[in-house]
Amino acid sequence: MMGKSHLVISTGVTLSAMSLLGHAITLPAVAVAVVSSLLPDIDEPNSMLVRKAVPEFLLRILQVSLIGAGIYLYFAGIAEPPWNIALALLVGSVSFLPSRRLRHLVMLLIALALFAFADAYDPWNYIAACVLVVASIVPHRGITHTLYAVAGWGALLYFVSLDMNDGGSLWIAGSLSYGLHLLADSLTQRGITPLPPIPFKLRLKLMSTGTKKGNAVEKVCVMLTLALVLYVFVLV
């Protein structure tokens, strides 16, 4: 399912369900629901979340920086010939990796920066850094598309929000929105494997992302979500 559909469906259903159950809809809860609706796809470099977090201009900056670093290593005299040439070519050649690999590299560099320089945002810096490291090395629809990830993300939000004045509903918003993303992906032909290494696949085979039928199913789900939001927040 497309990222924009995940965003509308998971966020809309989550906030509607929380309102019906009597949980406060705070700004942090809305933000967590939005992020969680896209978070499972952080393991896909071309997903909506990763493309927004790591836009094309950052990739271009990284490529230019790597080429510049290669030139510097060649002339700086750090290594004797021919090792300076080998080192320069090794560093410079990274800039020609495919966009997917470059995004993974940017994610790792951001994670290192968060670990090293973002102490003021403790513990969110470490949470974000760990998520980026895991997402850059796991395959798409792997561990991030499991019930383990839902439980882990919910537990993380629960313990982080214990000292927050308006953080009581964060873990509910996060785990519910995350879980709805997985449920939406179970509608596809590929489906998900919710409890690896158990080989059971949850897939209803109602659609394939990007196809005419897939687009139609997504539109129906989005319309139903908007109808639910209208009912809960306007009509009730």
TrEMBL record:
Classification of source organism: Bacteria, Bacillati, Bacillota, Bacilli, Bacillales
Keywords associated with the record: Membrane, Transmembrane, Transmembrane helix
Keyword Repeat found: no
Lineage: superkingdom: Bacteria
Protein name: Inner membrane protein
Pfam families referenced in this protein's UniProt entry, alphabetically: YdjM
InterPro entries from the UniProt entry: YdjM-like
Transmembrane segments: 57-75, 102-118, 146-162, 216-234
PANTHER family associated with the record: INNER MEMBRANE PROTEIN YBCI-RELATED (PTHR35531)
